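Please check this today:
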Amino acid sequence: MAHVELELEVLAPGDSDGVEPTTGPPAGAAWSAGPWSTSFDRWAETVFAADEPCLVIDSSMTIVAASAACCTLLGLADPRTAVGLPLLDAGLRLVDFTAARSELTETEVDKIPPLLAVTSGRQARGLLRVNHDNSDATVDAIATPLQRDGETVGSLTFFATV
């Protein structure tokens, strides 16, 4: 298992006044938030700038933010055009683990980690088989619900090729 060290710095109120965020959605993206008005907005900003394959969707299963690596891995439209599209309308093609490689049914799609985290309000993890450019990739996905005022408003998912 990887070892991660994290260092936190406490800022007194006012220490960060006037500091502009250095991340943000790609130029031309449909989504833009005020300067970090909620934790949901902060996650979206972080995902846009991430090198890792990650994704934020809202409670209606619409893409709010996707990293470039996520779009490449999952065969989605690029981050600028994926934002605002329902997850399954952005080019994601999920197939089952049988030799037939049949597309997942709606019931099976509802159980993929990004959607399950939204509907259950709990963390979700699972393997996905993604078909992109006539080849399949097995992807490990771990998703956590994002909440605002105690209500689940979306999910944050990280992906890794298996």
Remarks:
- The two ends are 15 Å apart (CA to CA).
